[in-house]
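tool_call predict_complex ligand=pyridoxal-5'-phosphate
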Amino acid sequence: ARYEAWYERHAGASKALAAEAEQYIPGGVQHNLALNEPWPLAVRAAEGAYLTDLDGNRYIDFLQAGGPTVLGSNYAPVREKVLELLASCGPVTGMLHEYEVKLARLIHDFMPAVQRFRMLGSGTEGVMAAVRAARAYTGKQHIVKIGGAYHGWSDQVVYGLRIPGTGSLEATGIPAGALERTHELAPGDGDALGALLDKLEQDGGTAAVIVEPVGPESGTHPAAPGYNAHVRELCDRHGALLVFDEVVTGFRLGMGGAQGYFGVTPDLTVFGKCVAGGYPAAGGVGGRQQVMDVFAGGLTAAGQRVFVGGTLSANPLSCAAGYHALAEMDRTGAPARAGAAGDRLRAGLEALIAARDLPYVTYNFGSIVHLHTSGVLHLTLDDPDFFAELGPRRDMLGHMSTAFAAEGVITLAGSRLYTSMADTDEVVDEALAAFARVFAQ
Ligand code: PLP
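tool_result ok
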């Protein structure tokens, strides 16, 4: 009731726009991250660490668009380069542009395993291309993913994989047949992965194992130390390709991504978010030359070529934005600075939780900060029941996203906070004061 009253009093313009949106847009919102029901907020301006809504309320922005902006929102030096590009050739021509080459070369500099890079329109498309390339290159059919992992919304690797027909949000509309050759395993269970790969050998073998290297849903279930290296070994033993989905971690954990962070080299890497520097359209796949050559028209094991594409794929605007953002992130040390802000935020939240003995848990991978409520006191990540306790209660923090917003902090569904280079100590401390006010209530 308290926050409903806040919304009525302070967010009238957002409320009016949301009401109009319902007349023309299904459910009144185009973007899942904006769902924030029942009190959607509409943005007027974003810059650095802050957002301003239509009513003029100012917020610290830990949503950061869902992760693509390690430099902070609407970073001026990148924006200027994008405007120059728009003035010279507009956003898209369909012809080769030097920024395509510059971006691919820069990615290779940061991630040597990405010998060839194909720019696409989204992380979802990057995953689709990786799966198709792996099947074409290996001549095998089966794909293995980890439970709880999000790899976009294509049919074959959908979130909540084994639940078509249950009416769940992600599975509705997907025929069970689309998932016949996709297998899902519990997070962290290397033995089960070995056994599954053995079993699939009897049925033509596995084309690829796809993982989020920090753990499914980008670290909600953190990967155990050594897990990625173990998956690499198992893939090698079975002739399966290892695909790292670095849509979240790519360039955010460091310019070398999670593959640099863990020292494990995948065959293919999927990109999204940061690869276009916070601009649309952000996605792609890269990796070993022999595998990536399936996109060049070379013959695959099965003697086939792989088609991927898109009218706006690799448009000069996305490539220019990605190139200048990545170069600027490298020059400024943005991933490390954003990571230090994440460490400070997590430590501050930990102190607030301990001071009030709240049933929350927080942890971070650099600038990817998790905050979950378990409903159980003093639960830690090492507790064997951690995820069982967490699962049914995750929604609680979703409801808290509005409470955080009313106190001046925007989060991703109340449970994920992306920090950026713009989050100075002062910004983080201002956010912690807001969290303290919510926790006090
Ligand atoms: N993979 C991961 C790990 C993601 O977090 C996401 C999106 O959040 C995707 C893939 C899909 O990327 P996109 O939203 O660009 O389609």
